[in-house]
Amino acid sequence: MPGTIIITGANGSLAIPAIEHILTKYPGYHLVLTVRNPSADADANTKRLRAVLDRHPGPANTASVRALDLADLSAVHAFADAVAAEVEAGTLPRIASIVCNAYYWNLVEAPVQTRDGLETALQVNHVAHAALVLRLLASSFAPGGRIVFLGTNATDPGANPNEKYPPVLPDDLEDLARVPERVEPGDRAGTGFYRYAVSKLAVTMFAYALNRRLEKDPDLNTVTAVTINPGNLADSRALQTNTPKSLSLAQKLVLKPLRPLLSLLDPLLRTAAAAGVDVAELATGHAHPGKRGFYTLLKESKSSEESLKVDKQEAVWKKTLAWAKVTPKNDEW
């Protein structure tokens, strides 16, 4: 078998078409698909995921849907332990890729901390994924493996129309973990989008720091990390979840029906299905094999100026290790 692909948030708008693309075009992978609620009876999105799996049965396609709550670091560490044990026992092929797809944002409520003491978007979008990746890298990855992080143009000041406050990391990174509202108390939409954007900025910066370490490690230098901005997904369920009514209505009345026309003006406006194919191509190593770095859609591109500051990348790396409760692979890391 080609190996195991782990996908978080596997019942999401982008993930489901990515999974179907892998099952159809690249059968033979063992898919470990994580969701918060694996019950098809309790979660309509998981039901849709399981329907895709049912359309691709047989020995060539092996998939398991597993529970994973990224808002609970103890659950993330337990999941990583279980996967590593299965790889060691030979019941699970070595990891070909991890797709860090799950996300959280909230544009309508005040920010809250998880039980781990971290602001929720920071933990779900960044810290939990970093913990998962770092726990499995040394023990369970196959040579030539890949880590796919999900980025966004929201990390580039002025690039996203939902931005009110520029996505710049605070001098004290601990401010990211706290929950007081930013700039204007009560500005739920502005504050929520800022927290989403800076969490994704942390993801992008962490990926650069991780790649530097992978390149220098003789045991892991064939493993690559990429960050992809998959575009602005007109049909994403994200625009219906924890969002103001104005954004939900804009999707229903403007973005979805007029997407073909609007995409002529904004090439990043696209469907979740198209984005899912791009992510699947990266995860399987068929797009840009052996390459590292930042991609917009599937084109190698430049991330935001803030994200390219090496000193801040290193600060994010060190802080992330502490937040994630992960010990580096070795002292050099």
Automatic annotation (TrEMBL):
GO molecular function: 3-beta-hydroxysteroid 3-dehydrogenase (NADP+) activity
Segments crossing the lipid bilayer: none
Any one annotated GO CC term: endoplasmic reticulum membrane
Domain of life the protein comes from: Eukaryota
Protein name: Ketoreductase (KR) domain-containing protein
UniProt organism field: Thermothelomyces thermophilus (strain ATCC 42464 / BCRC 31852 / DSM 1799)
